[in-house]
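hiii so my PI (J.) wants the whole complex modelled not just the main chain, which honestly fair. so below is everything: two entries, each one labled with what it is. i double checked the lines twice but i was tired so who knows lol
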Amino acid sequence: MAIKKGRASFAFSPPPSVITFAAVGGKMENEGPMGSYFDKTNDDPYFTTYTYEQGESKLQKEAIRLALKKINLQSENVSFMFGGDLLNQCVGTTFGIRDYEIPFLGIYGACSTMSEGLLLSALSVDSKAGELVLAVTSSHYCTAERQYRFPLDYGGQRTPTAQWTATASGALVVSPSDSSPFVRGASVGRIIDLDIHDANNMGAAMAPAAADTIKRFFKDFKLAPKDFDYIVTGDLGKIGSELLIELLSEDGIDITKNHLDCGMMIYDFEKQDVHAGGSGCGCAASMLCGYFLPRIKSGEIKNIFFAATGALMSPTVVQQGESIPSISHGVWISHERGN
Amino acid sequence: MAIKKGRASFAFSPPPSVITFAAVGGKMENEGPMGSYFDKTNDDPYFTTYTYEQGESKLQKEAIRLALKKINLQSENVSFMFGGDLLNQCVGTTFGIRDYEIPFLGIYGACSTMSEGLLLSALSVDSKAGELVLAVTSSHYCTAERQYRFPLDYGGQRTPTAQWTATASGALVVSPSDSSPFVRGASVGRIIDLDIHDANNMGAAMAPAAADTIKRFFKDFKLAPKDFDYIVTGDLGKIGSELLIELLSEDGIDITKNHLDCGMMIYDFEKQDVHAGGSGCGCAASMLCGYFLPRIKSGEIKNIFFAATGALMSPTVVQQGESIPSISHGVWISHERGN
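here's the output for the full assembly
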């Protein structure tokens, strides 16, 4: 049963577990500082398919395959799954999961998709509607660039505030279990729109949404940054991360000591030409499934608040002059079961 | 608590209620046979905004406003909401709900969005994560045509199998309550792809998904078509409805006596040039919120199985030669609370 902690915050009692997880990435991700934490990487941006879109689907298919394989779970035993991605009509997911025939609930949270999927998977297990519930997401540099900005062949210049969409995927399965990591609670995000119009500065657009959710979570759960090893945001990058720290400090919340941003972790700013950092659903998802969850499982990390962040922008409405609304869903993941 | 009935089917115990609902439509919808069942219609396709996309957002904003107003519910008392639509990055929803500041979980189920939203809202109330959970969706003829097919100005010929995307929205709120309509149970749909490649024949693409969910629901719940006043599909239209009946009869399930399709109900085939019928997220959502829910509330209708259907197509991948995978989520809505 979920225990309400605030308007849209709830604790899970007992907390369900993340019983398996896997991360898959591309060439840039392999060459970055986190390369060794991926379960598998592939240098071919097509992932041995014919189009970038099929390649992105293959990323999800592989992440699911590896996550299931780790615990010898057959796909037909998965109750149902949540998934989504950045592509129009979420086709990265649709075509990636089609062959598994797992009952499927599509979600759209832009780059916050993994925290939304994890939240809803935990909710589903908590309600006993499902026993083994999967969440997956992905992003791909080549599909995202041509959909949101310019076709790669155009060779457009990237602005200093632009972020590099990660070619990566993460998949996990939530189930009732006695072993860590546990999903202790969550806060559903609100749409926050501070009138940012620059589609090449998503960090600035998303930072206020992350600040809102982090603030609300701490208040609702009566917790503070010191209760967590890390406050993990999705893909704010350099600019967004600085803004987040500034916004939270205005409310007396200091996360300077334990803030990590997946978009800052995934690439090497010295050696890789990624401008303001990494982004994309696959960035936060692969860092969660490849780096954080294994460390929470082992006990090396005790508690994180995982607040992936999404810019709910569309090229159509940006061209119509609209601003970029953003959202962040937060999930408390712990090595300890709690009371 | 949800009671598992099958892999992805569950009953709610006690069943939550749909405590308020509203339907909003456009000119064609007002002129059709169901015109009087809409809470509000507007002849202006822009809904007094500057773009069709803003118009679609306005539809959702209005549907939510009217649903809340009926029971004097303030938006700040809504725990959180589920919403989505057909537009890239679900911007119909994002911009429609932005001003309400209701915590928001984005979903993507194409035209099955209302059954997905209702299912997840009921699940959230059931788990006690939320007390008042809202679901909304919309579609708009002018935004859908230019995104999926041709700009309206092009004046393209429509094929006989094409359907007319409804300009409509439906919104509802689920909460624990003693009054009808009750959400008794649900079945999560699977992606079904029988290799249909014609983006102008979505009924044919979606019928197998509806058949799969209806069959599975009856089997899991040990129920039959005779236990329901109506088996309601979303927007199969003429061709899809015929196919659905044929597919189910192969499995010995006869729904000829009580099948209704929202895409067949919403327009007048004699007087309105809609070819194979209505479609779009707003079609099933407005028929549910405008026609079915009020009749279930009054007891005129006792039980329906509401299986909205979605074609998970994207113009990009259709142009790349892909087929059209489809999905249908089913929800059992009843005047009776059950045991």
